[in-house]
Amino acid sequence: MSKKVSINLTDEQHMELAILADASGLSINDYVLQNLPITQEVKITVNLIEEKVGLFSGSLFSLPDLFTPTEWKSFSVGSRLAISKQFYKKVNEGKVNVEIHGKTSANMMIYKK
């Protein structure tokens, strides 16, 4: 379910935002969404996952296996879902050299490097 958020900007703030969005080739909406802290956390974490995947060469793993239990639990549930979706998307697009190998009993994707 989508939620709507509205903010009020001064003319100057809106102009600056429009310039930044245009320079990025994005709409203002997309620019704002891509620069939210949760979005940045997901990007950083997906990049970190890609680095850690090499440690599991030839092995089966799920995303929580790449982190200590404390690290994984430090992410909000929403962040864990977003991270999982983004990694899955990258695997499906062939951007990560990993195979999908099914799901766990907890419905988590299992991958193989």
Q: Which terms summarize this structure?
A:
5 helices, mainly alpha, 3 strands, elongated, 113 residues, Arc Repressor Mutant, subunit A, three-stranded antiparallel β-sheet, 52% helix
Q: How is this structure best described in words?
A:
By secondary structure, the protein is mainly alpha-helical. It has a domain at 37-112: Arc Repressor Mutant, subunit A, CATH 1.10.10. Helix content is 52%, strand content 10%. The chain contains 5 helices and 3 strands. It has helices at residues 11-23, 28-34, 37-53, 69-74, 77-92; strands at residues 60-61, 99-103, 109-112. Strand 2 and strand 3 form a beta hairpin. Helix 3 (37-53) packs across helix 5. The model has no long low-confidence stretch (mean pLDDT 83).
N to C succession of SSEs: HHHEHHEE
- Percent helix, as a range, is 40-55%
pLDDT averaged over residues: 83
Strand percentage lies at 5-15%
Calculate the terminal CA-CA distance, rounded to whole Å.
34 Å
CATH architecture type of the domain at 37-112: Orthogonal Bundle
| Biggest sheet descriptor | 3 strands, antiparallel
CATH top-level class of the domain at 37-112: Mainly Alpha
Q: Within the largest sheet, what's the order of strands?
A: 1-3-2
Structure classification: mainly alpha
Radius of gyration, whole Å = 17 Å
Oligomerization state: single chain
Low-confidence stretches: none
How many β-strand stretches? 3
